[in-house]
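Subject line: Sequence and fold of a protein, written as structure tokens
Enclosed: The protein record, placed directly beneath this head.
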Amino acid sequence: MTDEQKHALITQLQETRQELLALLAGLTDEEWETAVYSEASDWTVADLLRHLVGAESSMTRLMMLIRDGGEGVPEDFDLNRWNARVVQKSKEKPVTDLHTEIVQNRAQLLSFINSLTDDDWEKKGRHGSGQVMSIAQICQIIADHETTHMKDMRTALAN
């Protein structure tokens, strides 16, 4: 990854996080409980925040493992089960705690990015989706993932 690409990625990660925090700032209790997705179970705005907190933390740890020579998640990793579990495990956490965690997670991710050597960016391992990806690709997924869920939150809150 070139320095220019790294700078663009960091800028995107910073901007999407600022945008997310601005969206979530000042939500009412009712808005936090707005349904965003209705699949196997309803996911609310608060649940999506729980999901984003868990996903970013886990993907950062995953990239650290890949950087250090690991293969990534096991071949039989069940992303849907993991998603449901991470949301359920954090159901009782107050939104203020989730806010603190998501801020800390982004700081850890940016610190990790800044620690990478040129060779590290292309190291590959299995992502939770089952695809084998480079660290650069996983970093981009984190930024795009947040953007996608933010758009869905906005749509749900506007209805």
About this structure: Residues 37-158 form a domain with the Four Helix Bundle (Hemerythrin (Met), subunit A) fold (CATH 1.20.120.450). DSSP finds six helices and four strands in the chain. The mean pLDDT is 94. Residues 4 and 151 are 27 Å apart (CA to CA).
